[in-house]
Write a structure and sequence with these properties.
1% helix, 34% strand, 5-stranded mixed sheet, elongated, mainly beta
Length: 294
């Protein structure tokens, strides 16, 4: 198939006589007028340059960020452990755990477990916990700071008993059995002091072994202890509940009762004591929960 010829461009005309002029002639063949060279056609405007946009750099998607856990989960007791002691943190959550074998277990600063070896308030061999089936027996081994158990019911107090609540260590004394604050002189002269009046007992706030930093006289039938409510207050101790415990007498005996406090009320062991699953003991600077059965 033959392609059609391109159309010829029309011949220019003489500007004087309008006669056609052969392209390239400088004068008109009819009238002799000078023919001006036609202005060159304007060059087509260059097409705008389109800059190629750089392709975005392809990077692999970052791996998801993993947040490291901050809380210490209680360690699982190894297979075959008869019981577990788990530290209780100030907010009530569980801390480090220590497995206990069947039979006698010695707890103290000599232990291979860090939760004990780091505690400077523990004696090297502080207490013994003997696990026997579904029960356990705890005994203090003559430690400096004692071993305490959490009370769950009204508990009788004897002269010399120690009560622990929050960071407070309190020693109870019935005034009928208490020794004189100021001993008489060797020649028999009795020292003058303020009369005890109608007080039936006193609580000594212990700051060091056998050293009381403050004494509270007990005169009413009952006294309430706490951080905000009561007649014996420990306002700076954030581990003491607003109304924590009460101490009272029926005239012949003396008692302490926990008032559903957050962190409990503890009494120092004076003899071996049986413990059941879930019992709380206080040794050194930490409370521990006993779980029997691993």
């Amino acid at each position: 198939m033959v392609a059609p010829a391109a159309p010829k461009s029309a011949a220019p005309a003489c500007p004087q006589c309008s006669s056609p002029v052969t392209p390239g002639q400088k004068f008109c063949g009819s009238c002799g007028s000078k023919i001006d060279a036609p202005a060159p056609a304007p060059a087509p405007a260059p097409a705008p340059k389109v800059e190629a946009k750089p392709k975005p750099e392809t990077r692999p998607a970052p791996a998801p960020h993993k947040t490291e856990a901050t809380s210490i989960k209680p360690a699982a007791a190894p297979s075959g452990a008869a019981a577990t002691l788990t530290m209780v943190k100030p907010d009530g959550s569980p801390g480090e755990s220590v497995p206990l074998a069947a039979g006698k277990n010695i707890v103290g600063r000599k232990s291979e477990h860090g939760v004990f070896s780091r505690d400077e308030f523990l004696s090297p061999e502080h207490a013994s916990i003997e696990v026997n089936g579904k029960t356990a027996t705890v005994s203090d081994l003559g430690s400096l700071n004692g071993t305490y158990y959490r009370i769950s019911e009204v508990t009788e107090l004897k002269t010399g008993d120690h009560v622990r609540m929050g960071l407070e260590v309190l020693r109870f004394q019935a005034l009928a059995a208490a020794t004189a604050i100021t001993a008489p002189a060797k020649d028999g002269t009795v020292a003058i002091g303020s009369p005890a009046g109608d007080a039936w007992g006193r609580l000594e706030r212990i700051s060091a072994p056998d050293e009381a930093s403050f004494t509270f006289l007990l005169r009413s039938t009952e006294h309430f202890l706490g951080r905000e409510k009561g007649d014996i207050l420990f306002g700076d101790d954030r581990y003491v509940s607003g109304r924590h415990a009460r101490i009272f007498t029926d005239g012949n005996a003396f008692f302490v009762e926990d008032l559903k406090s957050s962190n409990g009320t503890f009494v120092r062991l004076t003899a071996s004591r049986g413990l059941s699953h879930g019992a709380l003991i206080f040794i050194g600077s930490q409370p521990f929960r006993l779980s029997i059965g691993g």
